[in-house]
Please model this.
Amino acid sequence: MNEYSVYTDLALEAREIYAQENGQDHPGIIVKEDKYEHSQVTRVQLTTEEAARNLNKKIGNYITIESKEIRHNSKLIEKEISQIIAQEIKNLIKVNENATILIVGLGNWNSTPDSLGPKVIKHIFVTRHLQDYVPLEFKHKLRPTCAIAPGVLGITGMETGEIIKGIVERIKPELVLAIDALAARNLERLGTTIQIADTGIHPGSGLGSKRIGLTKETLGIPVIALGVPTVVHAGTIAYDTVEELLDNLTEVNTNQAFNDLQISSIIEKILAPYQDNLMVTPKEIDRLIDDMSIIIANGINSALHPKLDLEEVMKYFY
Amino acid sequence: MNEYSVYTDLALEAREIYAQENGQDHPGIIVKEDKYEHSQVTRVQLTTEEAARNLNKKIGNYITIESKEIRHNSKLIEKEISQIIAQEIKNLIKVNENATILIVGLGNWNSTPDSLGPKVIKHIFVTRHLQDYVPLEFKHKLRPTCAIAPGVLGITGMETGEIIKGIVERIKPELVLAIDALAARNLERLGTTIQIADTGIHPGSGLGSKRIGLTKETLGIPVIALGVPTVVHAGTIAYDTVEELLDNLTEVNTNQAFNDLQISSIIEKILAPYQDNLMVTPKEIDRLIDDMSIIIANGINSALHPKLDLEEVMKYFY
Amino acid sequence: MNEYSVYTDLALEAREIYAQENGQDHPGIIVKEDKYEHSQVTRVQLTTEEAARNLNKKIGNYITIESKEIRHNSKLIEKEISQIIAQEIKNLIKVNENATILIVGLGNWNSTPDSLGPKVIKHIFVTRHLQDYVPLEFKHKLRPTCAIAPGVLGITGMETGEIIKGIVERIKPELVLAIDALAARNLERLGTTIQIADTGIHPGSGLGSKRIGLTKETLGIPVIALGVPTVVHAGTIAYDTVEELLDNLTEVNTNQAFNDLQISSIIEKILAPYQDNLMVTPKEIDRLIDDMSIIIANGINSALHPKLDLEEVMKYFY
Amino acid sequence: MNEYSVYTDLALEAREIYAQENGQDHPGIIVKEDKYEHSQVTRVQLTTEEAARNLNKKIGNYITIESKEIRHNSKLIEKEISQIIAQEIKNLIKVNENATILIVGLGNWNSTPDSLGPKVIKHIFVTRHLQDYVPLEFKHKLRPTCAIAPGVLGITGMETGEIIKGIVERIKPELVLAIDALAARNLERLGTTIQIADTGIHPGSGLGSKRIGLTKETLGIPVIALGVPTVVHAGTIAYDTVEELLDNLTEVNTNQAFNDLQISSIIEKILAPYQDNLMVTPKEIDRLIDDMSIIIANGINSALHPKLDLEEVMKYFY
Model:
């Protein structure tokens, strides 16, 4: 296994890579699958420290929603995905139904592939500031939600983890739901896969170069992370090309002529002067992200306000 | 004096209104003026609680930079204004030259007249995250700066004051510099006047409806506020019309036929159904704000990094 | 009647003003009204040149959809309005169902109140470029649509009318549907009224200062205009204040003491230095326009592609 | 030579590839180089049809400005580049100094790497609409310029070439200056290289998938094209990896074991399901494009209005 072969934020892919290399699933993981009309849901549970270490992820639950059809841009499919997102988030939320939830949109709004988080925030229904004005009969129906897209280190000069920790300590939500753009291993996953995890956001994950995570350990409250792969690292393309080529070199046993170090050195030469900072992304990424941000926001809004009859309540706010 | 006649965020206008109504300056204020080639600077110091109360402002220093020529869009004039801003900010900053400063862009980026703060933040040079990478010889030259445009209550569900207090307690800057769009009394001031004050941002000031201020009392550190009027309240237009009309009714002493209550009631009828929420703004407001945000950012960058030879230091960052 | 009293882009308001001043509807207009659950539709037809001249509009049909409840932000109400828009547009379109239609979003995306047109364009379903790829069985279902938001004179240096004429002559659509932000006479109409007219866009109408219209005369093809009031001219506020005040001056016949010229001169003094270029707009204008642009785009998409089963067709495009 | 090895919009790279493969420059090209303090300029002139065909470019002049230091973000370097751009554009413009010039920003503002053209347009000084208001003494100094960023096929449903041809026929400029984001062969060129050519924009060049070009043949007037590479095609990374790997397979003559067809098939397999639609771009692309768009706009403004003393003229416009 080479560093370029495991460059993924998806537990599902990490599991696949492990299984490929070892001929079987890691014993410390439990996997369940559900089929829906236009999509499938895979629940990967990492149960042991060893499994977590081997897959380079944290102990916890990773729900992956996959739908290649999502690129068809169909309202029916979008609705199905939104409903699954809502259901899965509801399953993960263990706090009281009146507990305040802070939704955080990570990423850089100036960079299309990294703009998923801020774009979702635009469509989130925030209600925390309305609590004082809600008629008594709605009080128990309207969960207080608040939202922020704080920007990235290069824009603010502050670690996102620091900003959110400061806000959490002041606002005192009981749960954080963080949305982020992810890097996948496999091109087919771009814009077609959604991962929801109860493990939070860890340093180095996602597209930004986070040095501080958003986790229960750092924030003191549970953190649900929702992400969509929008890029593949360029090193992955190079690595796959090497693998494919070596697989085709059948006559001589050249495969053994290359060790991982040599391959890494070849790839590094190709990717100079940018190295890790090169993203591979489809031309249509702007449309994929626009569509996905609405699907996700609908799912979140529905998960966080399940009792709310919006039509009814809206009369009181305007 | 009527509520519509004092609707201004500018201490300079509050002073003028007081002087007009009382035939003289308030005894508790000290005023100094400086003339520059294309602009003039008025320093109003409110020295007593009574003065502050009568002018509906806080005790402290209010520096007003005025330049009608600024609308000419001349680089020469813009440079002069940036330099004055830099100098006045430097005069107000009492913290150490290596102290971290947080720049806050208040306002709503979706609403042109309220977008000044977020637009200034885009041009602010942030350096706090670069501190670890700076070569030793620049360490003493590079003041740590960080910046955020948190959005408004309707977008986040959180009071801006709460968000900033949380961030301040975590990041521990020694000073906050807050930029905001203001309401003026006088149409001529839109986009031509800049107010810098050492009193912070107070509840209800600016275009957003702030319920918590950004002040030394709330944040525990000094707050410098920099604002530019971008709107006049619609009530002001109505009130001025009433005044002008009554001034023209010379034959009969009709003026006395109207008391303030009657005038307020007429204006309220005119402005229904929006009342206080109606802004008057020039069509060219987008251009005024774009220009002004660059002028202000240049002034702030120059004030906060006076020792920095940007050319020289940049070599190390890229 | 004074120039400030007729500053409206709405035929409905022009009719009201005329009726108020003359005690009856103009004989050259025909009015029909329909009530819906959350809205009402008024069809004003100007049938004579004299009516058109007296109302300062063109001969033709003006459909006005009004719904104060639209500000409640309810999906039900929004759906009703979208459906009415779709129906009314369909009634006005006299071209073949396979004829190409060009949708034009007028206005300045940098200025919130003037950004309605460009925002609608973002949500328009364009299909003209897909014609070559459509399977034969859909060919007759998919009307070719194309769309552009050309920007305003100050951004392009070109009259919008010139740009669109050039595009029309090259692309050869058979109908133009133009969306624009309007000025109303009455504050209550901001964001609550939609006007659809078969008379096109005329010089000087809307928020931009158009010198060339978009009409059948200039473009050679029918032009349907759809607009929503987003501002009231500041002069209107001033004029209304004068009227209201004079109405309250009962003791003496002061009303006659002021002629229109004097009133105009008072208002001009109030509005200096901006005059006509001052807009009155509610603080929440960004939200009103965002909501309205989706409602309108849904209506247009539904009107132009009535046969289209989007779910079905989408399979072929992605 | 393989299709993935020539995927470049830069004549300079096409020349290098040809020279590498053939051991010498193509006889039909003339090359001149100039050194500046922070940059170098290479003028490649394709003089024969054969040279044009072999390099997959058109007969004409290609000026390439290179500066790796441009990423240092230094004002000095930026000024040097702007001045070189201005000088090179002036050299290519053969029309009268009072002739109207249309600047066209190609590309998709929703996709960061493709947003260069629209971003440059934001900073272009347009004057065509001011001609009627210019005092006589400036009339000869102020060249009429106009500008548009029309959007891409997927947004408008119209070929950009069609839109621009329509506008050109109506507005009748005497020259078009088109700005576009380009694809390079070499990662080092991203954001560090500017190409100016007198050959116009050809179908299939740039990031958008143009089917109609912007050339003297299609528009009837000269077209100067200015572009900056912002992406490398993912196939290029894969191809380079293959080449590098095969170069390292020294023991056996495996190189001959692979022909171009096999390599293409391997790469296609890697890039499925996106193929040509995958872009490689650095994470910092948003900053690179923001900086570059100002540098370019300054160069263009200076080239098109060389006589203009902006300070002086501005007095008359505001």
